[in-house]
Amino acid sequence: MKAELIMVGKTTDKHIDACINEYVERILHYLPFSLTVIPELKNTRSLSEEQQKGREGELILQRVLPGDLLVLLDEHGKEFRSVEFADWLQRKQSTVRRLIFVIGGPYGFSKAVYERANEQVSLSQMTFSHQLVRLLFVEQLYRACTIIKGEPYHHE
To answer: How would you classify residue 18: left for phi > 0, otherwise alpha for psi between -120 and 50, otherwise beta?
Structure first.
């Protein structure tokens, strides 16, 4: 299984970006994984929130293939404990060729993206910046990989 994280807008904090890259390197020891950055839209002052979500949604959906499992990182998604997320990931590894996670833009996802999505996952009921969500997600993905392999990174 290949996994990918699609993000709207680049990570602007160099410290967070360095940490993200560290976890990406760690994840690559367990599974093929990549990050895809969709550039932020330019001249958005004249766009409504719905128009902005629509344009971002088009760019997201262009990167998703028909057989992909599309998982939105969304505040209304299913919450997992880390061990539960690892179990979920392990089940996907045997049935999915490409697992695509998406962190949307500042206003969330368009209706079209929600309609295409197979699942939604929430990292927390708390609100985090999009920059920090990226780091939290890759850390949890790495943690899930180590749990699956029975390695000591995670402690109960």
So the answer is: alpha
Q: What contacts 71, CB < 8 A, 6 or more positions away?
A: 99, 100, 101, 102, 117, 118, 119, 120, 121
Residue type, position 113, single letter: V
Nearest to 147 by CA among 72, 110, 107, 93: 93
Residues 99, 102, 151, 87, CA torsion sign: negative
Distance of CA 47 to the CA centre of its chain: 25
Instruction: Determine the Cα–Cα distance for residues 120 and 38; give it in Å rounded to an integer.
Output: 20
Tokens standing for 152?
A: 């000591």
What is the gyration radius of the CA atoms in the chain, in angstroms?
15
Residue 72: strand, helix, or coil: strand
DSSP strand pairing (2-8 vs 33-38): parallel
DSSP 8-state class, residue 39: P
Alpha-carbon span 51 to 59, nearest angstrom: 13
DSSP 8-state assignment for residue 42:
S
pLDDT at site 154: 77
- The 10s digit of each residue's pLDDT in 11-57 is 999 999 999 999 999 999 999 999 999 998 888 888 899 999 999 99
